[in-house]
Amino acid sequence: ETGVTQTPRHLVMGMTNKKSLKCEQHLGHNAMYWYKQSAKKPLELMFVYNFKEQTENNSVPSRFSPECPNSSHLFLHLHTLQPEDSALYLCASSQGAQTYEQYFGPGTRLTVT
Amino acid sequence: AQKVTQAQTEISVVEKEDVTLDCVYETRDTTYYLFWYKQPPSGELVFLIRRNSFDEQNEISGRYSWNFQKSTSSFNFTITASQVVDSAVYFCALKPISSGSARQLTFGSGTQLTVLP
User: Fold this and answer.
1) Which of A25, B31, B40, B117 is the most buried if burial means most Cβ atoms within 10 Å?
2) What is the dihedral of CA B61, B83, A106, A87, to 10 degrees?
3) Nearest-Cα residue of chain A relative to residue B49
4) By three-state DSSP, how is residue A13 classified?
5) pLDDT at B58
């Protein structure tokens, strides 16, 4: 595997379900990110982790819970979601959090029913 | 606060035409990076270029070229002799360079480019 991988690629869940999105980067980077991409809206940064520590939470509702066990893995735990949470969730990584370009995974297309 | 504006929401061209995607930005920071990303239908954003605010040299990479004009706060992207495979959504983004807490990418809303055969 190379680059940034995300699983699953597609997910349909009910509002009462609990699911998790997984991201793994094979680039030796130290920073990882979660973004939300909704139709007709710019990418929204959700969370930033730098050396496994969360450095930014962009006012994300608590029904989204990130976890970063190490610099290569990032999870987004989902529970009690709303239909408006349906979107493409993109994971990215960069060598450092401050000055480096980010490399993105293919995203998870989430549909909340 | 910073803002990135991509006024062209959709552009259609015929293969082999040249096309320019516009990007205008606002920032109070004196040093920053500018980026272009490509998002094909598969969904993954592909990094294309990063430019420093203190380097206004234009750059060419194959059929791609970028025109950075600090005086007009613009960072436009031109594809020469477009091909069908260039069809994608293109995002411009800005990131301040700061030594403090990580200040992150601000993306424009994207331009959907369709290249017709």
Assistant:
1) A25
2) 120
3) A101
4) strand
5) 84
What does DSSP assign to residue B102?
P
Report chain B (117 residues): mean pLDDT per 10 consecutive residues.
92 97 94 94 90 86 93 96 97 82 79 96
Closest by CA position to B106, among listed A58, A106, A75, A50: A58
Contacts of B102 in chain A (CB under 8 A): 31, 48, 50, 55-56, 97-98
The one-letter code for the residue type at B51 is: R
Handedness of CA A23, B100, B105, A47 (dihedral sign): positive
Residue B103's pLDDT is 63
CA-CA distance, A101 to A98, in Å (whole number)? 9
Predicted pLDDT at A101: 87
Min Cα–Cα distance to chain B from A105, Å? 5
Disruptive mutation site among A9, A54, A55, A101 for chain B (greatest number of B CBs within 10 Å): A101
User: Residue B1: which H helix or E strand, with range?
Assistant: none
Bridge partners, residue B4, by sequence: B25
User: Nearest residue on chain B to A42, judged by CA atoms?
Assistant: B109
Contacts of A31 (CB under 8 A, 6+ apart): A48, A49, A50, A51, A93, A94, A95, A96, A97, A100, B102
**pLDDT at position B85, please?**
95
d(CA A108, CA A27): 20
